[in-house]
Every structure is written in C-alpha cells, then in structure tokens.
Amino acid sequence: MSAPTDQDAIAIIGAGIAGLAAARVLARAGASVQVFDKGRGVGGRVSTRRDDALAGGGRQFDHGAQYFTCESDKFAAQVADWVAAGLAAEWTGRLAVIDCDLDACRLADPPQAKQRYVGVPGMNAIAGRLADDVAAAGGRVTTGVRVAPLKRGDGRWRLAAESGEPLGDFAKVLVTAPAPQAAELLTPSPALSNAAKSVRMSGCWAAMVAFDGPIATEIDGAFVNGPPEATALSWFAREGSKPARSEGASEGPVGGSQWVLHGSPAWTESNHAITPERALEGLLEAFWKALGLPPQPVAYAEAHRWRFALPENPLAARAISDQALGLYAAGDWCGGPRVEGAYLSGLAAAEAMLSRAATV
C-alpha cells in the first residue's frame, strides 16, 4: 500500500472520539488530514464544563459521557495507554440502582460489577490527547467551524464553512456527526444518508449542580429507573468521587457538593422545549426524591440539553461508506454506542479509507 499524498487529502467532520481516533490513524499513515468541528473544543459528548468564575480554581462537571468501559482488546490497549500517561483512571465510586414509582423511590439490586474509567482531570482529557496525537502526526484540528452542505466538483469534495469561507478540496470526507446531523451532510450519497436517517438518537437534559453543603448519602452515583411520571432522572453522580477531582471548600465528610444529573430519554423528549430553568427544577426534584432527602440550598446550577445523546438503534456496521464518492461515516451510531463504540467506529472508518475496503 503506497503512502497517501496531498491528492488524497482527507477531511473529517466532527472532533469527537470517532473523528479523532480516525484522524490519528490516518495522520500516522501519512495522510493529509484536517478535522473540523463546530464546537469550541474537541471531544463532543466527552465533555467537561468548568465554572471559572469561582475563586480558587473553579468547579468542573463531566456533563456528557460519565465514564467508559472496555470490552475489546483494541480499546483496552488504548485505555491502558491513557492510564499510564495519567490521563485516565479507574472510578471506584459507590454505585447504586434506584427504582422509582409515583409514590417513592427505593434501592434495587446493585449494578453489575465492572471496571469503569474516567478521564483525568476531566473526561475531555482523553479527547485532548487524541487531538494532540493528530497534531503530532501532522494532522490539523480546527474548532469553531460549521461545515456547509458538501459540494463535489472535478471528482473532489470542496468544503466551505457556513460563513462562506473555503476550507479546501479533499479526495475523501469522513462524517462523524450524530446520525441526524450526519444524514444532512451525507445527502450526496442517498444510501449513506438513508442509513443515518434510520438511526434514532435520544436527547438528554443534563444538570450541573453544586450545593452549599455536603449531601447526606453514601451513594456516589446511581442508575435511576422509572417512567417519566415518576422520575425525571436516568442517572446522577458526585463529581468529587472521581479520581483527581476537587469539590472545593464546601466538601464535607459525608457525600459531596458537586453533582451531575441526567434526565431520562423519555422525560427529556417530553420536556425538550422547556427552559433550562424548568429543566433544573424537574431534575432537582427527582434527585431529592431518589435520595429520599429534603432539598438543600444550591450554590451553583446550570442545565444543558444534549439534542443527540444516545443512539437507540445503532447500525450493525462499525463504519459505512460510498467508495465511488469517497464519502464515509462513523460514530457511536455505527456498531454500538458509548465511548468505546465511537473509538472502534473511528478505527474502522480509517482502516477502510486506507485499504479502500468496502464497508457497506
């Protein structure tokens, strides 16, 4: 296999785990790779929000992906590298399962025991390392750019930003946006666009909350079950229970002060149009109900709605492609969800682009 040249330049749309994993493989193989993302930083849903207004270094919240696990040898090897570099660590928090009905919530059987990892000092540390690896191999990562609908001319892809700024001509394009957004970008290939359209992605209201004092619970995180009429939640976690986190002066001997609350897909769908303030009210009410505790004063609170948080019916293929057009797609909606799924999807797309092997 000959080394790619500039005539084989590749554009990747999306600097989440899938896009960055693919970019690293391609850049290390000698390809001319450019990654574009509309966000302020890399990582996508592997995200850490910081409140820098607080004296003493600010608070931080992993408000997207909460942790990652390893089931494949490829991803386990990558996680081992991150751990060795001090960019990830095992999270040994005390996790619970809570079942809720209309009247109350109660503890259920504990979750399955497994190794769960988090980025250090925040979840986005692993995305940052991938981006650094891409740059070290000669690739480029550009954030804050919304890519306009794809146009093709003279057998190449001519990318431009929505602002009209030209981004370059490319032989191949890999789209790693969430499925509904990918479907729009993939319209030059009806087969790829229709495949992306077939994937349903649920949203998630996320709350980042710091309390004035410690919370009287020994639970560090919990999976919450129940219909949307009984609970708004699907998950909550105490940030200070994760490795290399600090909760500041308000941390106490029992529990902690900073928490992330995730709304369930059903509750989020029913409340997708409400204001962030209303979302906070609903999530906090469900939080206190889940713990069986009275409300406590809030020192800081912010809500964020992830429009496309989790693929409900991911495709069987790890990556898909239209070889004739040089158009590819990957992400956690291909082959399986979560951080590991996104990483493996990115690897599969890169391998297909280098080998020209068909993936559809």
UniProtKB/TrEMBL annotation:
It comes from the Bacteria. GO terms for molecular function: oxidoreductase activity. Residues 117-354 form the Amine oxidase domain. Pfam families: Amino_oxidase, NAD_binding_8. InterPro entries: Amino_oxidase, FAD/NAD-bd_sf. This is Amine oxidase domain-containing protein. It comes from Botrimarina mediterranea. The lineage of its organism: Bacteria, Pseudomonadati, Planctomycetota, Planctomycetia, Pirellulales.
